[in-house]
Backbone:
């Protein structure tokens, strides 16, 4: 019957796919049973209607079935969310303003209208992106937090009484995480990211020529744009790392594992991007040779520099991961 | 005005009182396997009214918590999901019953002591 199908659909449409069929079958049989139990002389349709009304609002039933969190960011980390959101949006504005200002000095084109319109559109897009990526990072942090505390309550269920020893220790100097460090890291990351996304040409060799400056960018702006999502992902993971630290406030083994895992992910993404040959400005060596009238083979030097750059990234990340895990194990 | 409020209030309080006993009621009947609706009828027969829309999600949650085991009976025309106590569920049920008796004794003392 159509009305039964509609009712079951209304209950199950937003439930997790894994349970959906199971619940559908169960409900169908239930409705059938309840209708049969109803021994009145009414028509079948009337009986079905009565049963469905007895079962009540499908949304309520669905709510009983689902145990998912119905919020994106919970009250426990909401203050940190606002803090980081303000910082990121502020840093994006600074980053884009500085990049546009410096960029317009160097490029020397005096078209004020063009510069201002570019400035405003980048600012708008930057603020929206900062908002979106930061929110995503916190939504992830909320989910990871939640699963942590769930495990905890299961363990606690086993009659473990709270004792004075359970009071969290006031972090010692070497295990405490400096809040300002995290904030500085967030600001720096955000500014760097907003320059890469909106003014990749600022990273390059700047050659003053009279009153003008020629810039030979290291990177290919178009290709950088095509990697936007990956840069965004790196940004999310980097912010996530600092969010974990801000929430935890002190080093623990668990925190260090999360932070190390985040570093590993952003290392992988960064290496993936920079190992891509197209990311580098293909004309860089040629332009450099032309501008400086170089006599030696800049091409091989340039390709070595690219390799060294990638190696430096890898080594830096490896060192950071090692350090993080070391601190975590020390404060186990 | 006060009396009207009192009725709603009483209803709410009774509901709250009953909510605490639902799980115990359900566990008590699941030594042998039952499907959801047969459990509704069985409990109703014994004077405990639980709506199917409460019971079905609850059974699922108890299964997830490891207190119940389930199996689908596909042979008859209507597929039915049968639930019964797991070993862990049986253990928890026993513990809950102990708690219940202690609580009931204390409540008795509290209430009858007043008379």
Residues:
């Amino acid at each position: 019957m159509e009305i039964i199908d509609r009712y079951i659909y209304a209950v199950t449409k937003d439930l997790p796919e894994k349970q959906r069929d199971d619940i559908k079958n169960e409900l169908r049989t239930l409705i059938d049973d309840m209708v049969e139990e109803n021994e009145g002389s009414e028509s079948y349709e009337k009986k079905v209607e009565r049963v469905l009304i007895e079962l009540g609002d499908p949304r309520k039933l669905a709510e009983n079935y689902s145990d998912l969190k119905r919020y994106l960011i919970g009250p426990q980390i909401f203050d940190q969310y606002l803090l980081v959101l303000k910082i990121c949006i502020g840093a994006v504005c600074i980053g884009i303003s500085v990049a546009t200002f410096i960029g317009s000095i160097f490029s020397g084109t005096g078209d004020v209208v063009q510069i201002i319109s570019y400035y405003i559109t980048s600012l708008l897009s930057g603020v929206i992106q900062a908002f979106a990526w930061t929110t995503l990072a916190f939504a992830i942090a909320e989910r990871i937090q939640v699963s942590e505390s769930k495990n905890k309550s299961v363990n606690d269920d086993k009659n473990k009484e709270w004792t004075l020893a359970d009071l969290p220790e006031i972090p010692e100097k070497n295990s405490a995480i400096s809040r300002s460090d995290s904030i500085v890291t967030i600001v720096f990351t955000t500014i760097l990211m907003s320059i890469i996304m909106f003014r990749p040409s600022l990273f390059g060799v700047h050659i003053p020529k009279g009153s003008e400056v020629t810039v030979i960018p290291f990177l290919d702006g178009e290709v950088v744009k095509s990697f936007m999502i990956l840069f965004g992902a790196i940004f999310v993971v980097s912010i996530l790392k600092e969010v974990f630290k801000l929430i935890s406030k002190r080093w623990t083994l668990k925190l260090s594992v999360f932070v190390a895992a985040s570093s590993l992910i952003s290392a992988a993404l960064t290496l993936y991007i920079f190992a891509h040959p197209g990311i580098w400005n293909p004309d860089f060596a040629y332009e450099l040779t032309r501008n400086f009238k170089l006599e030696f083979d800049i091409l091989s030097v340039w390709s070595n520099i690219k390799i060294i750059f990638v190696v430096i990234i890898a080594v830096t990340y490896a060192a950071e991961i090692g350090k993080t895990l070391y601190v975590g194990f020390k404060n186990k | 005005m006060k009396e009207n409020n009192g009725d709603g209030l009483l209803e709410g309080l009774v509901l709250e009182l009953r909510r605490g006993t639902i799980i115990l009621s359900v566990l008590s009947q699941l030594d042998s396997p039952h499907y959801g609706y047969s459990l509704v009828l069985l409990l109703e027969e014994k004077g405990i009214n639980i709506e199917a829309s409460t019971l079905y999600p609850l059974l699922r949650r108890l299964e997830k918590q490891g207190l119940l085991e389930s199996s689908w009976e596909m042979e008859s025309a209507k597929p039915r999901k049968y639930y019964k106590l797991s070993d862990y569920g049986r253990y928890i049920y026993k513990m809950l019953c102990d708690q219940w008796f202690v609580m009931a004794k204390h409540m008795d003392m509290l209430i009858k002591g007043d008379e």
In short: The interface with chain B takes residues 19, 22-23, 25-30, 32-34, 37, 54-56, 60-61, 64-65, 67 of chain A (CB under 8 Å). Chain A has a mean pLDDT of 83. The two ends of chain A are 61 Å apart (CA to CA). The first helix of chain A runs from residue 2 to 12.
